[in-house]
Each structure stands twice: as structure tokens, then as C-alpha cells.
Write a structure and sequence with these properties.
With 214 residues, the chain is of the alpha/beta class. The protein contains 7 helices and 7 strands; from the N terminus they run H-E-H-E-E-H-E-H-E-H-E-H-E-H. Strand 1, helix 2 and strand 2 form a beta-alpha-beta unit. The protein starts with 15 loop residues before the first helix and ends with a helix.
Length: 214
């Protein structure tokens, strides 16, 4: 800005606890004007609260959880959409009903829909949005299953999806759990007609390379 150089200081915060510590250190540094992050809603929610308390702008680029911007934080900006916004839900519903349903040869309201979601702020907020869409549009939601993103076995979740005869799977995952979900689904013979990956883990090259979905 005005010809002044911009310097980036990169700090790693893989856990919520790390995010609190890193945000505290950065927001107390007089040379830091803006903190940019992150990937996880659970990290963004805590880090932005610390930055706000110390009067430093927190520019969020990844968190989709509704809670992120529902707290009225003065110094928080977010550039991606919240899953709670009507525009998000209306666009998704239109896509499923006008594109996915016809591609499956069905009215989408007749499709057996299953949802799995990781149980942190991102997953639960996204799942709330899907339930709202299902209720508003009379979808047939036959499975609604949470799991922990750090789980190393999702076979029980997948067996429940198979038993529910899910045709369309709405999966809300981070990277490692998205990979595990897809790999174990293949191994256990769970083959829905459509898998819709809701952001996060399904948007990365790593999940496509390692799960075989690319």
C-alpha cells in the first residue's frame, strides 16, 4: 500500500490450542497489521477471538461455519461464504433438484439422501444447513451420521449408510477423513450413485490422489 512492502510471517497452528497461542503472539506484535487464516473453522473461531480482543484484524479465508461471523467481532473479516446464508442453501438446493436429480433419472425428492459430517464447528454447522435444505425442499434424508475427523476407522458409519440404501451421499469432511471415507467405502462396497463432497477435504488434490476420486 502506498509503495510500502508487505511482509508475511508464517506461523503453523495445526490445533485449536496452537491457534490461540499463535494468534496471541501475532496480535500482540506491533509490526503485525493483519492475521490471515485459516483452514479449520475450529481454529478460526478461537484465533479470531484472540485477535479481536487484542485489536488486530483477523482476515478469515477458509472457515465456513456460521458461528465464525455470528459473534459480532469488530476486527473479523471473512471472504468465503457461510453455510448458514440463504444464498448458499438456495444455490445448493437448485443444483441438486435441477442437475443431480435429472442426471439420476429421478425427482430429487425421491432420492434416498444420506449425510455424514465431521463433528467439529465446520461439520455441525454445515449439517444444520443440509437439514434445513432437506426440510424446506421435502428431501428424503434417510441417514444423518456424525463422526470425529481424527477417527481412523469409519466402517460403522459406512455400514449404516449401506443399510439405509443411500443413493446420494452428502459428505462434510476435512482431508484425511475424506480420504478415509472414500477408501473404506470402496473396500466395503458402498457405492452410492452420487457423492457430493462439501468443500474442505474434497477440494484438495491430496484427497483426489489418495482416495481414487480424481
Amino acid at each position: 500500500m502506498d509503495g510500502r512492502p508487505i511482509e508475511f510471517e508464517v506461523s503453523d497452528a495445526p490445533t485449536p490450542e496452537d491457534a490461540v497461542a499463535v494468534a496471541g503472539t501475532l496480535s500482540m506484535d506491533p509490526d503485525v497489521s493483519v492475521i490471515m487464516g485459516s483452514y479449520s473453522s475450529g481454529i478460526a473461531i478461537l484465533a479470531s477471538e484472540v485477535a479481536n480482543r487484542n485489536g488486530t484484524v483477523y482476515w478469515e479465508t477458509g472457515s465456513a461455519a456460521a458461528e465464525t461471523t455470528e459473534r459480532g467481532l469488530e476486527y473479523l473479516l471473512r471472504t468465503n461464504i457461510s453455510v448458514a446464508l440463504p444464498a448458499y442453501q438456495e444455490t445448493a438446493a437448485q443444483f441438486f433438484e435441477e442437475v443431480v436429480g435429472p442426471a439420476m433419472g429421478k425427482n430429487f425428492g425421491d432420492v434416498r439422501v444420506g449425510m455424514v459430517y465431521e463433528d467439529s464447528a465446520f461439520g455441525t454447522s454445515s449439517a444444520d444447513a443440509v437439514r434445513q435444505m432437506a426440510g424446506d425442499n421435502d428431501w428424503n434424508l434417510v441417514a444423518d451420521l456424525p463422526y470425529t475427523a481424527t477417527a481412523n476407522d469409519l466402517s460403522s458409519v459406512i455400514e449404516n449408510l449401506k443399510n439405509a440404501d443411500v443413493e446420494f451421499l452428502y459428505a462434510i469432511s476435512y482431508v484425511n477423513d475424506a480420504i478415509l471415507l472414500m477408501k473404506q467405502s470402496q473396500e466395503l462396497g458402498f457405492e452410492p450413485s452420487v457423492v457430493f463432497g462439501s468443500g474442505a477435504g474434497f477440494t484438495t488434490p491430496a484427497s483426489q490422489r489418495r482416495s481414487g476420486t480424481g
